[in-house]
Amino acid sequence: MSTLTYEYEPKTLSPQATKLRDMLVSYMKIVSRRLPDDVSKKLVELSKIEVDPLQELVYSTMKENQMLAEKLKRPSCQDTGVVQFFLKVGSNFPLLAELNDILTDTVVQVTKEAPLRHNAVQTFDEFNTGLNIGKGVPNIITEIDGDSDKLDMYVYLAGGGCSLPGIAKVLMPGEGYEGIVRFVMDQMTSYGINACPPLLVGIGVANSVEMAAMNSKLALMRRVDSVSPNANAAKMERLFEDGINYIGLGPQGLGGKKSVMGVNIVNTARHPSTIGVGLSLGCWSHRRGRIILDKDLNYELPLNKGVEL
Amino acid sequence: MREFHLKTPIKDEDIADIRIGDIVYLDGIIVTCRDVAHRRVVEEKRPLPVDVRGKAILHAGPIVRQKEDGSYEMVAVGPTTSSRMEKFEEQFVKETGVKLIVGKGGMGPGTERACKNYKALHLVYPAGNAVYAATKVERIIDAQWKDLGMPETLWVNQVRDFGPLIVSIDTNGDNLFEKNKVEFNRRKEEKIKEISKQVSFIK
Predict the structure, then answer these.
(1) Confidence (pLDDT) at A1
(2) Residue B112, in any domain of the structure
């Protein structure tokens, strides 16, 4: 029996911070069982294309599962991931100083209430904290948005299955964008097949390995039908979408006409000597939420039409 | 695509005619069993504390809720990536006599040999459909190796109509995913050539 335990002392939150935490707990419960509008719409589209009995059986199981999850108010997939938050926050957002504490406590609370699976395993000591938080977990990635008083935040529950294929590498410029093509395509048939297709494919291009990897994850925050503002990147998104679909992974990798829900590329500048490339995959059960809050905690949920907290 | 209904305990002859691509629904006992449990059996030589002979294992880490009376409720359960257990599965099947290995995605040559030599099947449940699967669990009758935490505990489930389970490796050792992969890789190479011609952005 493991004797190691993880000590969590909840911080005392201000009344507004407590209010925000409670709103986020409510929202994360919804994110854990209801797919964002762009994903739901895409899955309906794809299910109409996959008409063979096996593919039809898989898609009808998916549809039934999402209905049951909503009805029974349970997380739709058992793997609710290591919770990740991607924030863009202005320096005048009143709860800036408390944000890390708010988000950590949100995860602890929602884990009990949803309930979410306990997914934080302390490395080297190798024990599950049982709280779904641990060293560096939840992941909180923050970008400062000047002096605005708003918070724009994505929350992402990515299971192990679609996290496993994640990969990043630095190519030599001589390998060119052609090198990116092989890098991505090879991973689709080896690992992508097990990552619960149809997939959302996130590709990052940057100067170095960690920037490329982060860009690829940010690409998964974009809507499945979004297009890169850069013409060449947009062209590459189209080529990849067509190419990966042509491989024919189908739902669950059992074969079919479509492999992906979409391909998104996020790019930043590179060093003359390097092309960093990263790949992150989102499974069909792409539990990505987005909440935009003003200084008084008025909120918008742009990915969940009709949802109120 | 033929449909079969199996009930544990499963005998060799019950699964002899089932082929890759067939669909199975299961009644009886299925035990969640994944990374560390496989390692304990194969590398640490510890006997599995649940008898799975003639029964099924599920590569899965569920969400389980403990009720006030101490009993457990299955909230959500779906398969995890089976290929992580490939390293251990041949030996695991030999040691335990398990008949159905249920998971997600394909497995490799070791599991093919195990399915052929010890008469077992690898099957996939459409992953991500964890509430649907949980509603097929009638009750959790035992929990072992709880020290591993919620995802890795051996949860012993009594299930009814658990499925659809798509046969990925049959008792001939035929492998649906490996068969598909040959075609996937052929098409991939074709597209790599085609796309590469259109992305010469460095000039």
Answers:
(1) 47
(2) yes
